[in-house]
Protein: Peptidase S8/S53 domain-containing protein
Organism: Corynebacterium argentoratense DSM 44202
Amino acid sequence: MAAHTLRGHLHALTVLVVAALWPLYLMTPTHAEEPEEDDATALPRVPAVDRICPDVIPFDPAPDAAPEPWLAAVHDFATGRGVTVAVIDTGVAQHPMLNVVDGRDVIGERLGESAADITVGPFDDCDRHGTIVAGRIASIAPDVEIISIKQTTAITNNQHQDPGGNLATMIDAISIALDMKADVINLSVVACAPDEHTAAVARQQLAAVIDRAEAQGTVVVAASGNNSPNCQPGDTIFPGADPRVVSVSALDSPRLPAQYALPPHNVEQLIAAQGHVPYGLDPRGEGFIEAFAPAGPREEAKPIIGTSFAAPIITGIVAALKQRHPNASTEEFRQHLFHNSDPATGYISPVHAVTSPLSSTAKEEKTTQAIELSTTHRPRSWESALSPGSTALAALIAGGCLGVSLLAMATASPRQKLHKDNDAAGKT
């Protein structure tokens, strides 16, 4: 019964979650810890730490919360079973609603013993960002196996070490994910290049690892980034600037693009998902949080909003498609997503995308009829789920203080540091 209740809550955490991490380069995480598991082969627990993580506002969903009917329709066809997803982020906690099977702590490996007060392993998510992202993925594909690759954090007591990521660490993290045989890679962190020279160098550096992902059949999904001082319109945003990466923007509703979200590099291949997370998984326990607590007496609680949490919805869809079509190519998956997206907003109905035949041809020019088709396949429950009071909006969250979607991970100039997207309500 307990397992059934947990699964019900997980199903309810759906496509409405994600996003709003604070300025990516700051990567301000919020919280992390170790959930219990009854599997004898469970991974080692994260040891207790003395680090102080930012507070959050807990949320207790109604115990009888019912999953959205459209989610059940998706899960009737696929749950992501047998598919491995690498979450390159701030760490993913071993929450009981997540199937975290392995991990690597890139920060710890890079900084060595001096990282002791910055990170205690890949399942430590003081930022809460990575856990939220993972929960978002699991809402669509609850049976996926998650690999946590921790490559950045904004929470540190060591002012002499920079735990933030850059383009080089992003590339290393992608390589690690490929070494660990990930079928899908989610990057809710991005690197922003403000000038053409830097963009050209970054494009060349990233191309080799994406070549490898293509050869291995691994689909790479990334946030398009949030508009912020560190990532601005006109910047070249990585890894989404590579046309082989599925770049995901954010929506306020299925028909309304979020103003804080940056468009994908190729606007003709627009893909987007809900960027608001009403509540998500708490990395420090077994429950949920609905917002990040105020940072000071004159500040307000920070909502969970941003492209960081839009990307994992698409990642969940790809994981479900991978289960259904294990022999399809990365290009076939990309074209299927483009073919099933609304040309005006980029919205993709998870039900329609997962249940329809795989599109192996290039994306066709869409007409009003195509737009009507995507709306037809979107259950009415989606509309009510958009209400802040709806338990259907439940979304696994772990990015906490990371108010946006990790944006600037690049190298060289200050603006090229790894960023999480800024949140929509108070982007920094």
Q: What stands out?
A: The chain has a mean pLDDT of 73. The first helix runs from residue 2 to 12. The chain is about 25% helix and 15% strand.
